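Researcher: Before we compare anything, I want clean individual predictions. No alignment, no superposition, just each chain on its own. First chain goes here; please echo the sequence and then give the structure tokens.
Model: Echoing the first chain and its structure:
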Amino acid sequence: MSLQESLNKFKQQQEKCQSTLTSIANRSSRPTHSQKQAPPSTSSAPSRVAAPVKFSNDTERLQHINAIRKSPVGAQIKRVIDLLLETRQAFTPEQINEACYVDIMGNKAVFDSLRNNHKVHYDGRCFSYKSKHDLKGKDQLLSLIRSYPEGLAVVDVKDSYVSVMDDLQALKGAGQVWLLANNDSQEDIVYPNDPKVVIKVDDDLKQLFRGIELPRDMVDIEKDLQKNGMKPATNTAKRRAAAQVHGIPSKPKPKKKSGISKRTKLTNAHLPELFQNINMPDS
């Protein structure tokens, strides 16, 4: 039997039971010929009317709750943490049950996992969200960034408070921090823009930086940037093509200085080692 057929059968049974109870209530309220009619009561107290028995027809909601409580522990933990993160409020187990249908007290595995989760704070009564850095506003955020001159991962502060990302963009717009993308880890890194901060750079990194020889042609530089996943700020190839269409001559490449030539006036003839590669004119 399919689920829909079972639900239809259950609803029919509810309707039948309701009809039976209503019929019994009507028959019991009618006086029979053998019964004497009771005299009207002189009491002013209102008579009680029996409330009809109601059956719950919220089947989908009950099925949803049952599915949540039978889901894996990790899925239930995520529901609770999402609730704590979005609201930033403290909840008792009963309040969590009402808000997201996770029965913490009825599932020891869920309770223990939630209590020991590094994103959750439990004070013995209530659960609340716990971020890596306890920040309350933009001033504290800037102070924290300045304590990391070598860079702070944005993922470590993005859950500190609700408007932290807006404050981070505001600090960037004000020129107080640098917000750069890390191509290796696909995570943004924020740096303090403070000239007083001393940043230590390893000698190996300095040598690596100085040992990189850039191409002489700007087109080759732009191609290298694109290979590394970066978008060049210029498009030299397009600019040159447009210049040729409009007949604008391109700038000649600067000639490399060749040093000393035969026409150079020699004022240091007493230092012959300087002129070993020069064919001196006959005197």
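Researcher: Okay. Second chain, same rules.
Model: Second chain and its structure:
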Amino acid sequence: MSLIAQASRTVPQLLLHLNRHLVTSCSSAASATSSKPPDVDQSITADQLLGPESQRRCMEKMRSLPAFPRPKALTPSRREKQTSAVLIALCQERGTNEISLLYTRRSRHLRSHSFQISFPGGRRDDHDSSYVDCALRETEEEIGLPRHRIQVWGEAKQLQLPRTSSIVPVVGVVPDFSLSELRLNWEEVEEAFSVPLTSLMLPKATRHTQFRSGYSGPVFVVDHYRIWGITGYLTHLFLHCLLPPNLLPDCLKTNIKFIRPFKLPPKLPHHREHSAGDPSMRT
């Protein structure tokens, strides 16, 4: 099962650095074109997003993500030696040809992070020949989508995450997709669903959440689905890599600012402790 949810609370510094990198890249690309971003309601065709040029541009960006130093406050963990892969699947919906992203919800039977939303995927084992092989195997085991249905674009750069395994996103296209063809492994997956790209690009869908450490991360809310943590950030990251500047809406260009933790005032001494220490309060 995907380890994305397990990393959601431990990598806010990474989110901050990657977000700054995306904002810088987006600003540079936007300055190179004078085209005004269209309204999100404007249809985005498969030819625009799934052609060879789009694939080349997207994977170049996914492979060029910067590396970041470990936060000093976090000590190494044995789990960091493990690696996992997830599948970011661009689905061409059957009948409409609409482009969507495929997500899963973790099973209620799992001991940790049950019901949280993630991409299909999981830990790489000794039998996997590559991260692509790992992502395709885990996807087939979790939701029954066979590997021959997925047109693989390639691997992104490995994301080194403190206190948990590193993650390699694998990007692929699923033509003529229908949720009805999936066969879920109920021990691992509670639900599988797809979200249209146009829904993820709406201003009302793009939000943020603040971690306890004070860092903020992107969140997408579509209908009753709340996509957050590493899954939310990978969604944010992927949309920046996939969409050309003239199709990127303003709501995805907004920098998610760093917010320092709120510090509670010191607790006042208990009245009994105060009474014991103050002679004037003795009877």
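Researcher: What stands out in the second chain?
Model: Residues 46-69+80-252 form a domain with the Nucleoside Triphosphate Pyrophosphohydrolase fold (CATH 3.90.79.10). Additionally, The radius of gyration is 22 Å.
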